[in-house]
Amino acid sequence: MEANNSPGVDQNNDQNSKKIIKVDGRVIEALPNAFFKVLLDDGREITGFLSGKMRLNKIKILTGDKVTLEMTPYDEKKGRIVYRLK
User: Fold this and answer.
1) What does the radius of gyration of the chain's CA atoms come to, in whole angstroms?
2) Largest alpha-carbon pair distance within the chain?
3) Which of 7, 21, 25, 59 could be bridged to 38 by S-S, CB 3.0 to 4.6 A?
4) Domain coordinates in residue numbering, the chain
């Protein structure tokens, strides 16, 4: 069988997943459209937005909740909220 070498297929999936930075923080303010101000454990304040899976499953985030965010190394001011810690 031949390997699929079409240009639209990404074959380096594990290489792209290594660029994600996971950090923990606490929600300090709720903003419109499922955006939140999050104070990270290292003292930085960033804007976090709710991930699609959390929106679909109707996970509610309130002020004071501890959350886990995924960030890219390219934009240190935004992050995707992927988990609400207990």
Assistant:
1) 16
2) 54
3) 25
4) 14-84
State pLDDT tens for residues 24-48: 999 999 999 999 999 999 999 999 9
Contacts of 19 (CB under 8 A, 6+ apart): 72, 73
Amino acid in the structure at residue 24 = D
Of 50, 56, 52, 8, nearest to 32 by C-alpha is 50
Residue 75 corresponds to which tokens in the numbers above? 């934009």
What mean pLDDT is reported for the chain?
Answer: 87
Q: Which CATH number fits domain 14-84: 2.40.10.170, 3.30.1300.20, 2.40.50.140, 2.40.10.10?
A: 2.40.50.140
Please report where in the chains the tokens 């104070």 appear, as a residue. Answer: 39
